[in-house]
Amino acid sequence: MTNNRGISNHGNNNSFSNNAIGERAHVSFAAPPQEHDTRTIEEGPTWDIGVVTILSEELQAVRSELSLERHKEPSGLYFYRGNYAAPGTIIRVVATQSQSQGQRSTMAALDNLRRHYNPRLWALVGVGGGIHDEHARIGNVIVSTDIVYYENRKIQGGGEVKRRGEHRQAPAPVVHAVNAYFADNGTPAHIHGQIPSYASEEFSVYPGVMGSGEAVIADRESEIRQYLTAYHEKVLAVDMEAGGLSQYWQENSIHGGDNPGWVVVRGVSDNADKEKGHGYHELAARNAAHVLGRLMSYLC
Prior knowledge:
Layout: E1 35-36, E2 49-53, H1 56-66, E3 69-72, E4 78-86, E5 89-97, H2 103-117, E6 121-130, E7 141-149, E8 153-155, E9 161-163, E10 166-169, H3 172-185, E11 189-192, E12 202-212, H4 223-231, E13 235-239, H5 242-252, E14 261-270, H6 281-299
Parallel strand pairs: 2-5, 2-6, 6-14, 7-12, 12-13
Antiparallel strand pairs: 1-4, 3-4, 4-5, 6-13, 7-10, 7-14, 8-9, 11-12
């Protein structure tokens, strides 16, 4: 799930070496509409994309958009798997839902995906809180390859708090693939709403920085919001899981062999203020899942 969290940074973790999807990553231009493949799912040691969701609405949206089928592993864990037809290729997708919201549960879900399916790319997909009035309106989607984890801080005498953010960026092939999507579709890209009551309305898709931490933010004057907007003017939204995703990737980058790239796709379900609620979770989750489908031919 993704409500509001933050990310912090010293700015010294921006450059990482990772060729996890190196040879597979390519740029597809003007991708035609995608169709779902109904062929039997082939077993194999490596899957293309591993998706982590937090809320049940998020998993339902991804499952519906990508036509994934439920599968129970001998370990007792449930995953949702399928073949997705993209221009010129078949993409093998597996999705799971974390046990709870937050960074730690997200890292456990990623580890389960790695052990069972070893995907070439991680995608964190679902809803988030918008903190940018112009871009992050309810229903819009933020695609992020930059995470600012805001939780690290020093508490000094008198209660003064100094935040020490951590800024991490996805590996270069992922950044180039996302850039290509926006080059082909415009910035912002415009797409019709993905639930019937919003089918006649367009939502916007923006690239942007995601703030992440452990706090559910429901205050427009929150110190965390102020910190994030001062840290980087392109922090458009907040969640509670992207920091765990970027941390998991960084820690696994020290091992030999491939390390998957990552991307975050968040539909804006609230504006991280007193009006925050669950009323727009379905809309935001469906829009985010649809954008993931459009991105996959660029990412794989």
